[in-house]
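To close the section, here is one more complete example, presented without commentary so you can practise reading it yourself. The ligand is pyridoxal-5'-phosphate.
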Amino acid sequence: MTIYFDNAATTSVSKTALDAMIPALTENYGNPSSLHALGQTSNQALDEARRTVAECLGAQPNEIYFTSGGSEADNWAITQLAEQGKKKGKNHLITTTFEHHAVLHTVKRLEKNGFEVTYLDVHEDGIVRPEELAAAIRPETALVTIMYANNEIGTIQPIEELAKVCHEKGVLFHTDAVQAVGHLPINVKEQGIDLLSLSGHKFHGPKGVGALYCRRGVRLTNFIEGGAQERNRRAGTENLPGICGMAAALKEAVDHLEENTRKVTAMRDKLIEGIRTIPCSRINGSLEHRLPGNVNACFEGIEGESLLLRLDLMGICASSGSACTSGSLDPSHVLLAIGLPKEIAHGSLRLSLDEVNTMEEVDYTLEQLPKILETLRDMSPVWEQMKKEGRC
Amino acid sequence: MAMAYSPKVREHFANPHNVGKIENADGVGEVGNAVCGDIMKMYLKIENDVIVDVKFNTFGCGAAIATSSMATDLIKGKTIHEAMQLTNKAVVEALDGLPAVKLHCSVLAEEAVKAALLDYYTKNNLPVPEELQNAKCDHDCESCMH
Ligand SMILES: Cc1ncc(COP(=O)(O)O)c(C=O)c1O
Ligand code: FES
Ligand SMILES: [Zn+2]
Ligand SMILES: [Zn+2]
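Output:
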């Protein structure tokens, strides 16, 4: 038995997405740039997918640029708008301390190349404060980039308010919405979003495909030079199977958003409730402004990777922000950003659910988790010390 | 990062040997620190210079638990002089290797054994052998502070 609670890392490809991909992998193999019939069939499929993605976001088709995924969309938006800003003497960027590495590392590189960067605090609850954004904006601010929802702790940012603050000060607003698209209602026009990144594999589409929404009127410069694809902005023969699969998956997710949210939220809340009964544990991030499928907890006295491996032995796939799982030596920058001390951040667990999960899986996990924690705590000198000091 | 553990590491992690504590142990050593994410505590029962029993408690990742388990296996029944020669390299080899990023976790196993032996020498007012001169853990060594 496998219980997959790692949907924030990636999701399975849905039947709908797969069905949409097959023709593009088989009979419709033409290059969308070719003028012959096969090429034009592909071109129509590409147009159709673009329309679908645009509709799902409340955008126009010519505001959608397909990419190789969320990372590319983030890199593209941030580097190109920063570069344009620089030409106008704007060398300041604003982001947050808990962005995905696709944003953080991009911003860090710009910082090395002479940009000044303000990293907004995300507070204990993992939420950016609009008034702090307002105070950080300067005349030379080229771009504000703030993620829609955090990939580790699932906290949802007040996007509409943040965008409003930016526009009042005449600054462009980009959001990495990779974790939000397909899981939260989004309308770029109503919310005032100038640029938005998304990725197909987070909502049951295929991996290696994503999109950048860029509002008409915002000048987007080329990221990849070459052919005339994506209206001359992003060269390379299109990943048509991926694009068709992503569009179909997104439409399915958006069409079922309400019922999925209801189902997933109920499972999430049951998990959170169950975890809260475990001594010396805590739930990370705001409970109120939270992705329907995100559970993130810390358990004192244990280390996250060993928890993960033991859950895996019981058939439960999860993830952790401990140093030992990240392959680096520090625990997750997200958990440190919300103020957790390192020794607690090492004991973190993320369960990310989705509509394909079931309440039975939740119950089984709530049965196994306390037993595993007990085993690990029983062999933990840290736990022993905590007990001795009466801290647990 | 993709970190493939060998079947042996997985086995020692899933069913670690010699987990626990020894009351009135002849030597106890604790190394590592919780900030870095790994702490190992080693208990030795020593009779006539032979390690007749060994137990460990570890807070740490899969590699830390597996290396603790393997290190205890390697020194159980050995003389204290043999145990002193234990290296993290030997532990890692016995586990059929560890991913490179996990090597620092394995250093702790060697240090924990040495710290426990040092404790035994100190408690008994015996002259400390050269191998153990630096075995005291101040919880701030290079491998722990990174
Ligand atoms: C918030 C966020 N941004 C960006 C990415 C990167 O997306 P991709 O894997 O499609 O490059 C991810 C997921 O890995 C993510 O969770
Ligand atoms: S082993 Fe003691 S500080 Fe590293
Ligand atoms: Zn360490
Ligand atoms: Zn470790």
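Once you have examined the tokens, check your reading against these statements. Residues 54 and 61 of chain A are 5 Å apart (CA to CA). The first strand of chain A starts at residue 3 and ends at 4.
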